[in-house]
Design brief:
The chain is of the alpha+beta class. The chain has three domains: 63 residues, Arc Repressor Mutant, subunit A (Orthogonal Bundle); 60 residues, no CATH class; 65 residues, no CATH class. It is built from eight helices and nine strands.
């Protein structure tokens, strides 16, 4: 019969390189204390890399760049999946994700229905900010980001060029999702989003 250490090692080796791992992924193999100790030992061996407290990765290596660390976005997505929570990017990250800003934000903020927390990944941070369910009800990936991005720009501060870019992006969203999400946006943002519908119908 294999030991807890061997079972944990085998499970890690069965994962693709670049996979994000949590101690909770091994709860069926031993006590939380035993899992922590074995993960610590496997980290020292180089089988896994600790990227933040309680967050590990099976390292992926590049000949040019060495060991690749998962992006903050990948970590946030894995946490949302693990905790079965909803989250939506906000602020400067929403702008960057839509291509409205070339600046890569060092601080990423997600609205969530999970617990509020801050996670540090290298010199970047991920903040999960608790919000009301209404703000998480958007269905479209693009339209949900647009609402947050336009809020970040601010009422009356959006340029014609930015508005045109947003309309073009929204035209890629499904009619159904766009119609649903428009109703969740503040009235001043609804007016911009509705232009994508008008353009579609022409």
């Amino acid at each position: 019969m294999k030991s807890t250490a061997e079972l944990i090692e085998k499970r890690i080796k069965s994962k693709a390189r670049g996979t994000i791992l949590f101690p909770a992924d091994f709860t069926d193999l031993g006590t939380s204390e035993a899992i922590r100790l074995h993960l610590f030992r496997l980290e020292k061996m180089g089988l896994i890399k600790r990227i933040s407290q309680g967050i590990y990765v099976r390292p992926k290596e590049s000949k040019l760049l060495g060991i690749l660390t998962p992006s903050a976005e990948e970590v946030a997505s894995s946490i949302a999946k693990r905790d079965r929570i909803r989250c939506i990017p906000t602020g400067s990250y929403a702008l960057h994700a839509l291509g409205l800003s070339t600046q890569v934000p060092m601080k990423i903020v997600f609205l969530t229905d999970g617990s509020a927390r801050v996670i540090h990944i290298g010199n970047r941070s991920i903040t999960f900010k608790k919000t009301t369910p209404k703000y998480l009800m958007t269905k479209g990936e693009i339209s949900g980001l647009v609402i947050q991005a336009v809020k970040e720009i601010g009422k009356g501060k959006i340029s014609l060029e930015e508005e045109q870019r947003i309309i073009e992006l929204l035209k890629q969203e499904s009619h159904q999702n766009l119609a649903h999400d428009i109703k969740l946006a503040p009235v001043w943002i609804q007016k911009i989003m509705q232009k994508a519908q008008t353009h579609d119908e022409d």
